[in-house]
Design a protein that fits this description.
heterodimer, A: about 250 residues, about 75% helix, about 0% strand, B: about 270 residues, mainly alpha
């Protein structure tokens, strides 16, 4: 029995310590979602360009952001040539919650992701500042989504707050929320009328007047802050939609 | 060389203590042998060995279920291995909350082996406890003849069949006397608060009318009091379902305790492959 175990260990060592990467075996591990065996196999291989490339591929398959970048940098020539890997990684980083890795990915010098002709790189740059591009830079299917994002990007939250200070709810109208504008305006008007009526009939120092005035002040200030937030939220929402549409289109 | 390798794998003494790294290495070597092999039966045996490795380490997670799903049962020639695999597959699928898959493996298992043992019926009850009431009922009755402790498992049927009644009654009650439906659902403080808020706002509106504050009365009446009134009815509905969930959770907890007791007496064990 000992002999058999020894032969097994010997064979195991011979097979996996050789410098040759068995690409078909890696594909087999990947197709069967055998992450555990996949990691063990890649870690058993001596470090080389091709091993780092396969590690980057592995990381892209299992959405391990930082691991993709580390291995990509170590095997840039091979990784650059693999369009699938680059697309998958770019989609991962465009939709990732952690923006530090996204910045690192699109900033790798000389990498595919930083290339001028790369669609994903354009989408990333446009998502940071849509004013850098015109809608012609994008295919017809993306132009609508892009223009919507660009328009919302150019709206100023402070301006929305100023509008709402002058006319309650108008900041929401500026942010494109027509229904909310009417509701906010009516609520503020109602509280104002209540306060004026109770102030006239009961006096300014009466508790009901004070309650009405406080309620009006709270609603009025909330409307200003709400308008400011509405523009910021609109930007985020449109940016997310643009990235989703773009990744779906280019995928 | 490959043959020696595969044979050595199959005969490898399973009592070797595997560390995590050794487990990973062994899994990889079995997978490599699987990849290289052209014989379907050998391939299935290698997968069984992989599953066995996991089980020896008490690992029953999604990785094991993945391996279980790869096995082609029809390619297994050894009937005992087939039966043992299907038993383990049922348990693993159940432990991974994949009850559909567990039911499938259990059906395959019972087709191969006419099993009337306590553990088989117990596993079938566990898999179907929240779904197939007639099957569970039948099995509980069968097991109760052997040991009365199994009667306790009928508590799962109580959970399935439990439904709180008379929602409308509580809603109408709250519509007539605000907060009363909420209080009757067991949330007395919330019920009293609802009543106090409604009474306070109605009193305020009356006072406003007395002072000639008609705009205030209308706006408070439509903006505040109406919201309080609608909110009180909504709260009653929420408290009704909350009370139902509370009762169901209580039943589930007590049932899980009973199940634990049963499993202590009749433990479900995985079979060696």
């Amino acid at each position: 029995m000992k002999k058999q175990v020894n032969s097994f260990i010997l064979f195991f060592c011979v097979v996996f310590s050789s410098a040759q990467v068995n690409v078909k075996f890696i594909d087999h591990l990947s197709a069967n979602n055998l992450a555990r065996e996949h990691t063990t196999y890649l870690n058993s291989l001596p470090e080389s360009d091709s091993v780092f490339y396969f590690k980057a591929k592995f990381a892209a398959k299992y959405d391990q952001g930082a691991f993709i970048i580390n291995n990509y940098v170590l095997s840039q020539a091979l990784c650059n040539a693999d369009t699938n890997l680059n697309n998958k990684a770019s989609i991962h980083f465009l939709t990732a919650a952690d923006q530090r890795n996204t910045q690192a990915w699109f900033g790798i010098p000389g990498a595919f992701s930083a290339g001028k002709e790369n669609n994903f790189n354009t989408v990333y740059k446009a998502s940071l500042n849509p004013n850098l591009f015109s809608e012609e830079n994008f295919p017809l299917e993306l132009q609508k989504s892009y223009l919507k994002y660009k328009r919302s990007y150019n709206k100023k939250p402070v301006l929305a707050a100023v509008f709402s200070t002058i006319l309650p709810g108008s900041g929401k109208l500026y942010a494109g929320k027509t229904k909310t504008f009417f509701l906010t305006f009516l609520l503020n008007a109602a509280y104002a009328v209540q306060t004026v009526e109770s102030g006239k009939k009961l006096g300014i120092k009466h508790p009901l007047t004070i309650i009405n005035a406080t309620a009006f002040t709270v609603f009025y200030l909330s409307n200003i802050y709400g308008s400011y937030r509405a523009v910021i939220d609109l930007r985020k929402e449109r940016k997310k939609q643009f990235i989703t549409d773009a990744t779906n289109f280019y995928n | 060389m490959l043959r020696i390798f595969i044979i050595s794998l199959l005969l490898c003494n399973s009592t070797i203590v595997f560390s995590q790294n050794a487990l990973n290495d062994s899994l990889l070597s079995y997978e490599y042998a699987y990849f290289k092999s052209n014989n379907d039966t050998v391939k299935q045996m290698l997968l069984l060995k992989k599953i066995d490795l996991y089980l020896k380490q008490n690992i029953t997670d999604v990785n094991v279920l993945n391996e279980v799903n790869r096995v082609n049962v029809n390619a297994l020639t050894d009937n005992t291995a087939k039966v043992n695999f299907l038993w383990n597959a049922t348990a693993i699928a159940y432990l991974n909350n994949n009850t559909d898959r567990a039911r499938f493996f259990l059906a395959e298992y019972s087709e191969l082996k006419k099993d009337t043992s306590v553990t088989f019926n117990l596993l079938a009850i566990l898999i179907n406890k929240y779904a197939d009431t007639s099957d569970v009922n039948k099995r509980i009755a069968y097991l109760a003849n052997k040991d009365t402790v199994f009667k306790d498992l009928s508590c799962f049927l109580d959970i399935i069949n439990y439904n709180r009644k008379h929602l409308k009654f509580y809603l109408i009650s709250s519509a007539i006397i605000p907060g009363s439906g909420t209080a009757m659902n067991g949330y007395v403080f919330k019920g009293i608060t609802s009543l106090a808020l409604m009474a306070g706002s109605v009193y305020g509106i009356i006072k406003m009318v007395e002072y000639g504050l008609y705009i205030n009365a209308v706006l408070w009446g439509t903006g505040v009091s109406l919201k309080f009134y609608a909110g009180n009815i909504k709260l009653t509905q929420q408290s009704f379902y909350k009370a139902e969930d509370k009762k169901k959770n209580k039943l589930t907890n007590s049932c899980e305790l009973k199940l634990k007791n049963v499993l202590n007496r009749y433990p479900l064990t995985l079979k060696g492959l």
